[in-house]
Amino acid sequence: MASTVKAETSHRETSAAIVWFRQDLRVLDNDALQRACVNHECVHAVALRTPKQWLQHDWSAIKWDLYERRLVTLANELAELGIVLTVLDVPDYAAIPDALCEFTQRHNATAVYWNRDYALDEVRRDHQVEQVLVEVDVHVNQLDSNVLVAPEQIKNGKGEYYRVFTPFFKAWLQHLANVGIPAPYTRETIKRANQNTAKHDVTAQAPAQTARPVLTSEAWSVTEGDVRRKAQRYVREQVQDYKQQRDLPALDGTSMLSAYFEIGVLSPRVAAHLLQKQSPDFPFGLSEGAHTWLSELAWREFYQHLMFHEPRLSRGEAFQVETDGFPWRNDKVEFAAWCEGKTGVPIVDAGMRQLNATGWMHNRLRMIVASFLVKDLHIDWRWGERYFMQRLIDGSFPANNGGWQWSAGTGTDAAPYFRVFNPFRQSEKFDPEGSYIRNWVKELADVPTKYIHDPASYLAAQYGQDLPYPAPIVDHAERRTDFIAKFKVAKSAASG
After folding, report:
1. What pLDDT shows up at residue 12?
2. From CA 308, how far away is CA 150, in angstroms rounded?
3. Which member of 299, 322, 428, 439 is catalytic?
4. Which of 17, 216, 277, 333 sits CB 3.0–4.6 Å from 36 for a disulfide?
5. Would you call 44 helix, strand, or coil by DSSP?
6. Is 220 a known active-site residue?
């Protein structure tokens, strides 16, 4: 950690403290907030909007909308506990150190608390803030309640970070078994610690105008209590079926909590506590479905750890540097067809249309459309990575980068480059009745199930040249063979 956290004491300091909210917009299980309240008589909360930075980081309009709505609700929830949330507008990260320093001095605060982020720009931002605050004798306290296991806490036998998920997961589980999961503080703990009754004034701001479509996040509740109840219901009623249902996009078999993990309305520790109730031997002894869901939390942290330990991942570089020699085609017409869901491959088009219409896409579809972009269209995975970030309500830079590099065969623990999803077989396997396809590709609503996955011949026979839906823009078998051959050459050339 960047600095040592003060030990909790029975006597709180009379000086004020600042809690800086970032990607942790919650009251419960928020170590930064709770430690500040335990250690200080007076606590002020602050959040800093950085619109220029959000645009540079390709935040989607719907994620931006969710974040803004959550800020307003968070302010109300904090006010009920006697804590005022102030929201400051600064253009980008470079402006944060001075703005936060000024805010700290205005309130005569002697300490600032925050929960760490792990990508390169955020690490640099926090280092710069710490330097400025230390110069004016303000103590910095950095916590890790946005993850179950901090990046420095698990290493392999050589003292290095894990580059492959399976051994990482084993070590991650053992760490949880050895250390346990801290119990969340209660709202009463925070309320007793603060008697500040000043009023707050936070107004949601509309996302900056961009070329991206503006989608409202109104379908997503932003009340912390609602989100926790959603998590509780999922773990209680559905998680046991997660392994069987998670790959079926026509079913509501996933938790739909990823957007809340991303902006920190829900912490992974709360999710782990819910799972812990199902097994006295937690993190072991869970049902197959619960264990698989826990592994998804581990994947999320695995990618955060990778980005922390390998800053070059934040700069758009492939983990396997030898793969950068691949001769990407980067055909803009084909890319546009992929973006718009007009490739002529029903399962791919259904996934892209779901993303464009809702800001969310089923995880199995994320893998299918990513494989198609990279290994069928031979378009640089970074194009797809950025498009996803610009559309997803749950756009997580580490997870999105990790997922794209896995699909492209360029990352650590990646799918082998010669493993190429056949989108038609994927469709038959995971959407056998074509329900998901018909829901999102309306042109195919009346196509018989026998032809729904690959309808080109059926449509040609029915409509001749006047097709209601296009034929596939590429031949999968040809592009697959070409991709594998070129990727093999690129890797061989890089190795000398």
Report:
1. 61
2. 10
3. 299
4. 17
5. strand
6. no
Phi–psi pair at 21, nearest 5 degrees: -85, 135
Q: Which residues pair with 42 in a beta bridge?
A: 16
- Known catalytic residue at 404: yes
Catalytic option among 20, 172, 381, 406: 381
Mean pLDDT over the full length of the chain: 92
CA angle 321, 327, 330 (to 5 degrees): 110
Is 328 a catalytic site residue? yes
DSSP codes, 39-54: HEEEEEEEEEE-HHHH
- Cα(184)–Cα(441) distance, integer angstroms: 45
Cα gap 100→112, rounded to integer Å: 9
Q: Residue 451: pLDDT above 50?
A: yes
Buried b (16+ CB within 10 A) or exposed e, 94-106: ebbbebbbebbee
**How many residues are there in the chain?**
496
- Is residue 165 a contact partner of residue 413, using CB atoms and an 8 Å limit? yes
What are the pLDDT digits (tens) for 412-436? 876 677 889 999 999 999 999 999 9
pLDDT at position 467: 93
Catalytic residue among 20, 59, 338, 404: 404
Two tokens, residue 479: 């592009």
Sign of CA dihedral 138, 139, 145, 147: positive
Is the predicted pLDDT of residue 218 greater than 70, yes or no? Answer: yes
Structure confidence at residue 207 as a pLDDT band (50, 70, 90): very low
Give the pLDDT score at 184.
Answer: 67
- 3-class state of residue 113 by DSSP: strand
DSSP for residue 161 = -
- Report whether pLDDT(121) > 60: yes
Q: Known catalytic residue: 141?
A: no
pLDDT at 6: 36
CA distance 469 to 472: 9
Regarding beta strands 85-89 and 40-49, do their DSSP bridges make them parallel or antiparallel, or are they unpaired? parallel
Of the listed 322, 328, 422, 428, which one is catalytic? 328
- Catalytic residue of the set 54, 310, 363, 439: 363
Q: How many angstroms separate the CA atoms of 174 and 321, rounded?
A: 31
CB 395 within 8 A of CB 66: no
Residue 94: pLDDT band (50, 70, 90) is very high
Range with the poorest average pLDDT among 198-212, 323-337, 420-434, 470-484: 198-212
User: What CA–CA distance (Å, rounded) separates 86 from 75?
Assistant: 8
Q: Which of 296, 310, 322, 443 is labelled catalytic?
A: 296
